[in-house]
Structures are given as structure tokens and as C-alpha cells.
Amino acid sequence: STVGACGDVSRNVVATPAPFETPEYQHVREYCKVFAQLFRPMTPAFSNIWLDGEEPASVEMWSKDVTHHNIDEAMKYDSGRGIILPDSTEPLYGDRYLPRKFKIGVTVPGDNSVDVYTNDIGVVVITNESGELEGFNIMVGGGLGRTHNKKNTFARAADHLGYVPKEDIMELMKSILASQRDHGNRDVRANARMKYLVHTLGIDNFRTLVESYFGKKIQPWR
Fold this sequence. Notes:
Elements lengths: L9 E6 L7 H16 L6 H6 L20 H6 L25 E6 L13 E7 L5 E8 L18 E7 L3 H15 L10 H8 L1 H12 L8
Parallel strand pairs: 1-2, 2-3
Antiparallel strand pairs: 3-4, 4-5
Helix pairs in contact: 4-6, 5-6
């Protein structure tokens, strides 16, 4: 998916392009759609400004494939731990959105064709021997961008955050986004990507921050 153009939102969700039909790869494609739908901007600004208020013919073609996940309900679910903001239009982004763009990569163990360690969030599908989905390994804080001659900008590989069972994945993803939304650098745009927040805090402190929103301990990487 590509949503939000240059907006400071979850801009891209990418899946490995390998055309395999094993259960693991099917889970990858399904959850790419889940994450794209979960983090889509809710504002009608684009259609109001450019289309006289008419809805585009199709903007989220993937949404019809994941209706059984009840994503809107999961998006708006308020645990009371600060993830949901009191903004009727954007419950996750609020009125300030994110400090910078946000990218997500999803893959299976052993397939790094999406360069998963270069994403703000990297997601690795974990299945049992029968191919049934059990959960996800999550990594955070990757990114390749840097500014020439600015030593305080740098490329960075993501760190392993841990493992989450499938039933908790959307709430954990929301918790990571909220951590960056509330604690990312809004003063220096060159250092506003989540990789700088993870680098500054360290992965252990960042994990603790995410857990404060999540309300649970994140399990060890599998």
C-alpha cells in the first residue's frame, strides 16, 4: 500500500514479492492489508479539497479482503493507556499526526527481499509446523535515510523488539505507533524518524515505553 503521499502517517506497508502460495506467504499478504487498513488516515481532507467532497472511486482496495478482522473496531478500541487520542477524525494520529513518515515491512523467516530491517516496524510471520499462524516477531527502528554532511543523521538497522501472539498484534502495532507519535523528535525534522527515538532510548527502554501503552510484557523474540 501507499497512502498519504508525503504525509506524516503510516505511508507504506510492503510485503515480500515472492509469488509463493504457502500458508506463511498468504499470512504475509493478509496482514499487510490488515496493517494498511489499521493505520490508514481517516481525514476526508483529500476529497474535500480536490474532489469537491466526493469519495475517490477506490483508495483502499485491500480493505474488502480483511473485513473479518474487524479492523475499525480494533483501531478505535481504547485501553485507557493513552493510545487513542480525543480527536473524532483521527483516533490514532490526533491533530498533529506523526513526527515523520512511518514504514512497515512484512515477511517470513529467511526471506529478506523487503529489506525488513530498514523499516520503522519489521514484522515476521511465525507459524507452527502445519502453517497455522501463531504470532509475529517484531523489530523496530530501521531506516536508510541520512542527510549529507550531518553526522547526527544515519542509516540504522532495526532492533528486535520481541514476539507477540496473533491476537495481540493490532494492539501492539498501535502501541508502537503511539510511542513514536508521543515521544518522537518534533523539533528537528532530520531526526524525527522512529529510528532516532529507538537509538536514543536504546531498545530496552523503548520496549518498556511500548509496554506502557500495550499493557503487557512483550515476549522474547522467537
